[in-house]
Amino acid sequence: MVAVESVPIIITMLLNNMGVSLLPDYVVKRYLEQGLLTKIHVSSLNKKMALQVFYHKEKKRTPTMDKLLFEIEKALAPQ
Question: pTM to 2 decimals?
Fold first, then answer.
């Protein structure tokens, strides 16, 4: 297994039949539509992903940023 953090490099590797990857649909949408990549549905996969949000602490937070942070906190709150 190889850990690669660059999405363009991951896509290049996929296009060259160098493995499989977990990527969001929006990243590979055009490759799927062009038939260059194939989506594999895995029903038993329970993948948890880390989420990090970075913003400049000395800059004003916009209402949009506040809404985003609110929605993230709401989505991650225990049910």
Answer: 0.56
